[in-house]
Every structure is written in structure tokens, then in C-alpha cells.
Design goal:
Layout (H helix, E strand, L loop, with lengths): L17 H7 L3 H11 L5 H9 L5 H12 L8
């Protein structure tokens, strides 16, 4: 299994647990890095708004996982 890597967000793969990714996203720095590297550009604002409101980010992580599994989850970085 290939792991995505970048300079900003820690390496994650399809085998990385949602809870582990959600724990990383508690950090402002990591949430912004995830948004920049793994969220479609037109969705970054919505993701960061959800994050700032304390919303459950599980749907975002699950959407990333689907993209990752079809080969679109590599960092844009």
C-alpha cells in the first residue's frame, strides 16, 4: 500500500484509521495542511469552516479515503 507524503501533513494511507487522522486534524496547522493537500480546492473553505465550528470531520476523512482508493488521494502539495 502506498503512503502519501508531504512536507506539511504527516504520511497517511488507506490503512490509517479515521480516529488517527481525526486526532491529527485537531491541530490548526494539520487541519490547514490537510485542506491544502487533500481537499479539492473548491471545498477547502467549507472544510475549514466545519473545522472552525467544531463539526465532525469524519465525512471529510471518508471522502478523502474514497478519493485515495481510486488514486486521487495523493497530496497536491
Amino acid at each position: 500500500m502506498t503512503t502519501t507524503t508531504s512536507n506539511r501533513f504527516p504520511p497517511v494511507s488507506a490503512t490509517t484509521a479515521n480516529t488517527e487522522i481525526l486526532d491529527l486534524l485537531k491541530s490548526p496547522k494539520q487541519a490547514i495542511a490537510f485542506a491544502i493537500e487533500h481537499i479539492e480546492e473548491f471545498e477547502v473553505r467549507a472544510f475549514l469552516m466545519d473545522w472552525s465550528l467544531g463539526a465532525d470531520l469524519t465525512p471529510w476523512v471518508e471522502a478523502w479515503r474514497v478519493d485515495y482508493e481510486v488514486g486521487k488521494g495523493t497530496p497536491r502539495g
